[in-house]
Design brief:
Elements: E1 6-9, H1 27-40, E2 44-47, E3 49-50, E4 57-58, H2 61-74, E5 78-81, H3 91-101, E6 105-109, E7 113-114, H4 130-137, E8 143-144, H5 148-161, E9 164-169, H6 173-183, E10 191-197, H7 207-220, E11 224-230, H8 235-244, E12 248-251, E13 258-260, E14 263-264, H9 268-281, H10 289-296
Parallel strand pairs: 1-2, 1-12, 2-5, 5-6, 6-9, 9-10, 10-11, 11-12
Antiparallel strand pairs: 3-4, 7-8, 13-14
Helix pairs in contact: 1-2, 1-9, 3-5
């Protein structure tokens, strides 16, 4: 059995600064959290950036450049840049980081969904920044658009930049989308699938649904690696199940702000340490970044567009 790949999703675009004082905001904070996760045993980091003045999700290439340079200076991590971006960003904004930095890995969302965060306002009384309320509330009437056209266009850009897609699978039909594009020779195999569970609008986080996702991928796609991330309280349960089923796992403050019930995680690195500890208890060993590159067939750190 190959080693497991642990990814740390450092800040994301779902949680807002009022939800946790530990959410990294500035380029230095995001990079330092990536380095902390590397020291804890992560092989991959998933990177979004935020406006350092107010924590709002951003697509600013200069912010990405600062984060990526510091990570590369201090580690040999595999860096996965988002193309999900922040909710409401344009297609050009979302793909700008891939064009500018040619990372080894970048997220590519497998289809459109109702991406709902508005219910988080039920538990937020005092907000640090005015943008947070509008950003969360607008998702009651928001479709996260990822059409067959944008999938084709994004994948073409990925090919041009030598970046491997990490396909984000929020619901079962998205596996069929990827399988269709493989049959049309628009996507190359082996593919890397990230099953994203527990987002309102996507597939619920349950053992039955995880098995359903895996079985569907087995039936429709011949050659793939896979991983799981899950929102909130289901993070460690679903990630542990994925590891036991032969997959990989993603943790981090993008997906879950807590280490255990009632205890906020102070770092994504704490969550990396916890999932690796769980893995060791069942005889699994985490991959180094170099080993993750071999497993995912990545181009190598010497071929990225940042230094």
């Amino acid at each position: 059995m190959s080693k497991i790949i642990i990814t740390a999703a450092i800040t994301g675009s779902i949680h807002t600064p009022s939800m946790s004082e530990y959410l990294p905001i500035t380029p230095d904070e995001i990079a330092n959290e990536a380095i902390r996760s590397y020291e804890a045993g992560a092989a991959v980091v998933h990177i979004h950036v935020r406006d350092p003045e107010n924590g709002k999700p951003s697509s600013d290439k200069s912010l990405y450049g600062k984060v990526l340079s510091k990570i590369k200076e201090k580690t040999d991590l595999v860096v996965c840049i988002t193309t999900g971006g922040g909710l409401g960003q344009s297609t050009d904004e979302r793909v700008a980081g891939v064009r500018a930095f040619q990372p080894e890995l970048a997220s590519l969302n497998g289809g459109s969904i109702n991406f709902a965060l508005f219910h988080a306002l039920d538990n937020l009384k005092d907000l640090k920044y005015d943008w947070e309320r509008e950003y969360l509330a607008m998702t009651e009437d928001f479709i996260f658009p990822n059409t067959f056209k944008t999938l084709r266009e994004f994948n073409k850009i990925f090919d041009e930049e030598g970046t491997k897609p990490e396909f984000e699978i929020y619901d079962i039909g998205m596996i069929n989308n990827i399988a269709f594009l493989i049959k049309k020779d628009l996507i190359k195999t082996p593919v890397y699938l990230q099953f994203v569970m527990g987002i309102l609008g996507g597939i619920p986080a349950s053992m039955e649904n995880l098995q359903f996702l895996k079985n569907t991928a087995d039936n429709l796609i011949d050659d793939f690696e896979w991983s799981v991330c899950a929102a909130g309280k289901d993070q460690f349960k679903m990630c542990t199940a994925a590891l036991l089923m032969g997959g990989n796992a993603r943790v981090g403050l993008e997906d879950n702000l807590y280490l255990e019930k009632g205890v906020k995680a102070k770092s994504s690195g704490e969550q990396v340490e916890k999932i690796i500890r769980i893995a060791k208890e069942v005889g699994l060993e985490s991959a180094t970044p170099a080993e993750a590159r071999q497993i995912l067939n990545l181009k190598g750190l010497d071929q990225v567009g940042f230094c």
